[in-house]
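The pair is set out directly below:
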Amino acid sequence: MELNQYSKTSKTTFTIVLVLIIITGFNLAVYNSYSKESSNFTVGITLMTIAIFILPILWFKLNTRKFFGLISIVAFIMISISLEVAKKSFINQQIVNGITTTANVIQLKSEIRGKSTLWHYVIIKYIANDKVILQSVDDYDQIYKKNDSIKIKYSKENPEIFKIVTSN
């Protein structure tokens, strides 16, 4: 039985579930993915793409696989761009009235991503709301050294969200 052959009530219920999945994916990708180690952005995009891909199949009789492929590619690209813009906007809103402080580089790290890409980053430490926070910062050009000071601005509401203001 094809998806579009279910009763209208079943389709409506399934549509509501898909909309909830889209909302959950958006929430993960935008509001819970600011940490470099978080995979929530990828999970959010995936959830949203799958849900948006299923919606037209559920309501319309579509016979071509090319159309499904085209819908999924276009949906994935549009969702990726939209979520990245929304995520940056959310972070900027959090930082706008943030607190400026100094973070210290406590560790230099490198790891291989994929088959041959070497990723350089540093671990910084700062204190926010009487809590020690450790974060990773990209260091592609290897400009930071251990014990360097980096001026950052972090969110009052969520101190894990930060931006570098200046370094050294």
Summary: Strands lie at 99-113, 117-128, 131-138, 149-154, 162-167. The mean pLDDT is 83. The longest helix spans residues 65-96. The longest strand covers residues 99-113.
